[in-house]
DNA sequence: GCGACAG
DNA sequence: ATCTTGTCGC
């Protein structure tokens, strides 16, 4: 599939923040998302050795599943190097280049991208899921495993229980329990979808485990690609 | 000023 | 993210 080239690689945090600020107005928020996506892609990255600085070897993976059966439709992986050091808030710049390589090699154009991390639940409202949404033009959501920004109340104990993730006065995401009695995940919209649909999609993708099947598949593929 | 801080 | 043993539970 095609990916837009809207910026080069930042060489400083200030430059990276400027790119986020420039792309943020391109986001389409508050529009209805794909309720029954035909295909859903999961993205993830695995690191070799110390995952802190720039230059460390990594592998990015994209796995496309049938939105109904959750069967694998297509897989793509790419190896590369961390393009930026790990800085909270600028996380996307680390793995974006390799992630985009994997996406470009994809024949399928997914109806939805499920990203590891956050969308608008971000200090400047432009997390990895937003970034990938603007570059691909596709609906995207972010599913984080741990809290980043925002305050929330512990959701109920059952699958489907949720509570709003609040930053300042605004709802930036939702803390969603995907399975009975397990730690909740943090869902936020990235591009061209709404929070209700995003959470609906995440529940549809978690029939058995805490994390979306897309994320689990991509995680496994990225580790394999890294190993060789 | 001091912590906290997606992966 | 990654480094890592044992351990509790289905």
From TrEMBL:
Primary location group: cytoplasm
Chain positions of site Interaction with target DNA: 86
EC primary class: hydrolase
Catalytic function, reaction form: Endonucleolytic cleavage at apurinic or apyrimidinic sites to products with a 5'-phosphate
GO biological process, one term: DNA repair
UniProt subcellular location: Cytoplasm
UniProt-listed Enzyme Commission number(s): 3.1.21.7
GO molecular function: deoxyribonuclease V activity; magnesium ion binding; RNA endonuclease activity producing 5'-phosphomonoesters, hydrolytic mechanism; single-stranded RNA binding
GO cellular component: a single term: cytoplasm
Binding site for Mg(2+): 44, 116
InterPro entries: Endonuclease-V (IPR007581)
Annotated transmembrane regions: none
Cofactor needs: Mg(2+)
Keyword annotations from UniProtKB, A to Z: Cytoplasm, DNA damage, DNA repair, Endonuclease, Hydrolase, Magnesium, Metal-binding, Nuclease
Sequence similarity: Belongs to the endonuclease V family.
Function: DNA repair enzyme involved in the repair of deaminated bases. Selectively cleaves double-stranded DNA at the second phosphodiester bond 3' to a deoxyinosine leaving behind the intact lesion on the nicked DNA.
PANTHER family listed in its UniProt record: ENDONUCLEASE V
Protein's name according to its UniProt entry: Endonuclease V
